[in-house]
UniProtKB/TrEMBL annotation:
Segments for region (Disordered): 1-30, 209-271
Residues in Pseudouridine synthase RsuA/RluA-like domain copies: 38-182
The enzyme's E.C. designation: 5.4.99.-
Name by which UniProt lists this protein: Pseudouridine synthase
Pfam families per UniProt: PseudoU_synth_2
Compositional bias per record (Low complexity), positions renumbered to this chain: 1-21, 225-234
UniProt biased composition (Polar residues): 235-250
Membership in a protein family: Belongs to the pseudouridine synthase RsuA family.
Entry keyword set: Isomerase
Length: 271
C-alpha cells in the first residue's frame, strides 16, 4: 500500500514574474477538516489488509468502495476486528508510528486458562525473538457476544478455552499471538476491539462507518527528534569541586586517580 503523498510547501520564485503570469506554483493546501476521511471497518476473517491481490484472495476492495483511502496500520489475514482507513497521511502516521504508542485493545480466545503468574508475565513484558515486549494490560474476561467465525475455531474437547482482554502500545508482527504462545496458551481467535478511543461497537463483519468530522482525532505535528547528548571529556580542575558540589574524582574510587587535587600534592613526610 502506498502512503499518502506528503503536503508540499510553496517556494517563492527568485525570478520576476512575466506580466499576466505567476511563476509561483500553487502548493497543495492543507487538508480541511471537512475533506479528511476516517473510516472504521470491521475486517472479516481471512481478508487481506490491502486493496489488490494477484492470487485473487479477498481484500479490502471487496468491502470498501471509498476512493483514495489507505489502511492506517495492519491486521493479520487470520485476525478480525477494527481497522482504520483514512485519506490523511498525517493522521495515518499518528495512528501507526511506534513512537506514538497508540493503545490497541484485543479480545483473544486462547487455549487453556492462564494462571495469574502467566498474566503477570504479559503485564511485565515477555522476551520474544525480536526483543522484550513493553508492559501490557492483560486480564481474563467474560466471553464476549460476538459474531460466529466462519469457519469456526477447532476446540479440543479435553482442553478448555477462555477469553483475554490484552491492551498493547506496540505493533509488531503477530505480536499478541506470540505473546500468548510464550506463556503456553496459543491464540485460537483474535479480534481487535479498539484503537485508542475508537471501538468496534455497532459494526458487523465487513461493515464500515465513516466518522463525522467532529469525531476524527486531530493530527498532531510530528515530534521533533531528540538530540543525542554530547559527550565532552571531563577536565581536571585544581580549584576544587564545581558549584554543583560534585567532586571530579567520585568515579575513580578511593585510589585518587584522576583527582582534581593532583596538582596540589602533599609533601612527603620526613621519617
Amino acid at each position: 500500500m502506498k502512503p499518502s503523498r506528503p503536503l508540499l510547501s510553496p517556494r517563492p520564485s527568485s525570478r520576476p514574474a512575466a506580466p499576466g503570469r505567476s511563476d509561483v506554483k500553487t502548493a497543495r493546501q492543507p487538508m480541511a477538516a471537512q475533506e479528511r476521511k476516517l473510516l472504521l471497518l470491521n475486517k472479516p476473517y481471512m481478508v487481506l489488509c490491502q486493496f489488490t491481490d494477484e492470487a485473487g484472495r479477498e481484500t479490502l476492495k471487496d468491502h470498501v468502495t471509498e476512493p483514495g483511502i489507505y489502511a492506517a496500520g495492519r491486521l493479520d489475514r487470520d485476525s478480525e476486528g477494527l481497522l482504520l482507513l483514512t485519506n490523511d497521511g498525517k493522521l495515518q502516521a499518528q495512528l501507526t508510528q511506534p513512537g506514538e504508542k497508540t493503545p490497541k485493545t484485543y479480545w483473544v480466545q486462547v487455549e487453556g486458562i492462564p494462571s495469574e503468574e502467566a498474566l503477570a508475565a504479559l503485564r511485565a513484558g515477555v522476551a520474544l525473538n525480536d526483543g522484550m515486549t513493553l508492559p501490557a494490560e492483560a486480564r481474563i474476561m467474560a466471553e464476549p457476544e460476538v459474531w460466529p467465525r466462519n469457519p469456526p475455531i477447532r476446540e479440543r474437547q479435553a482442553i478448555p478455552t477462555c477469553w483475554l482482554e490484552i491492551k498493547i502500545v506496540e505493533g509488531r508482527n503477530r505480536q499478541v499471538r506470540r505473546m500468548t504462545a510464550h506463556i503456553g496458551h496459543p491464540t485460537l481467535r483474535l479480534i481487535r476491539y479498539a484503537i485508542g478511543t475508537l471501538t468496534l461497537d455497532g459494526l458487523t463483519p465487513g461493515q464500515s462507518r465513516e466518522l463525522a468530522s467532529s469525531e476524527i482525532p486531530v493530527a498532531r505535528p510530528p515530534r521533533p527528534a531528540r538530540a543525542a547528548p554530547s559527550r565532552v571529556p571531563a577536565t581536571t580542575s585544581a580549584k576544587g569541586p564545581s558549584r554543583s558540589g560534585a567532586s571530579d574524582n567520585t568515579s575513580q574510587g578511593a585510589s585518587g586517580k584522576g583527582s582534581g587535587r593532583a596538582s596540589a600534592r602533599r609533601p612527603a613526610r620526613k621519617i
